[in-house]
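Cross-posted from the bioinformatics board.
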Amino acid sequence: MSRAPQADTHTLGPPNGVSVIQTHTHPLSAAATQQDTHTNTGGAPAPAVRMKKPHQEKDSDEYRQRRERNNLAVKKSRQRSKQKAQDTQQRVNELKEENERLEAKIKLLSKELSVLKDLFLEHAHNLADNATQPTSNADTGSSPAHNNGSTNGQ
Amino acid sequence: MSRAPQADTHTLGPPNGVSVIQTHTHPLSAAATQQDTHTNTGGAPAPAVRMKKPHQEKDSDEYRQRRERNNLAVKKSRQRSKQKAQDTQQRVNELKEENERLEAKIKLLSKELSVLKDLFLEHAHNLADNATQPTSNADTGSSPAHNNGSTNGQ
DNA sequence: ACAAATTGCGCAATAC
DNA sequence: GGTATTGCGCAATTTG
């Protein structure tokens, strides 16, 4: 609950919103208030030194109005920003899931491929054997093992 | 940048920080700033309304010190938060890339698989033909077309 | 010139 | 009794 800093007024504050302006004086903090500095071009007599326009007095009615509007905008902006961050996080999760799915699929395909290749090789050997020994034993030879492992590269 | 951080500090004002309270009417619009209400424990007539201890006066030395520390913490926290958001975004990009890579790989494997399967089918047909007609023509038959299309499901 | 949007900052309440 | 987070308002900038 925002309260007026300074003198209390604590406890059930008046229904009115009170805004405080803080002003401090900050002796420390050597905040280098480095500012633009157009680097005045030499001794050019250019008087163009744009001053800040006070816009209006603090207690102006228009001022208050502007502030209010801005406060609203700020709130909106922040909310949106937060939302976006959340969405991004969500996106990460989704992508991660998708990734896993793809990875699984790859695994499956790889396996399938490997099996087929093995079959192929085996068959090729059989053919070769047959060619060498047209009249071999009785049964259709079954090679003990034809190990083929890896497949792809990258 | 950053000239007078806060309310005015009107030009070289008094080295003394002054807090101004805006006793304006401040219809903070419909800002729902509800809060508190400590849930009175039971129906005890206890007037015990714990007050927040003002901690210290605003111009206290300790106060100033606490503020400074907090400001620092705040800055740190925000910076970190921002960093995190950035990292998350980065992660999204990486995951997206990874995704594309995987997708490409899948495509490749699928194609490879399809080719092998075709070859297999073709061969099977040949075998079947041979079985039916052990004494076929001279050459090693080459079937015109054995179209096999799709491959996977899911 | 201008209004909305962003951004950095300090305060205070609160969570840890 | 400390830091860490969070909502909030101010003011300077940036954007459209």
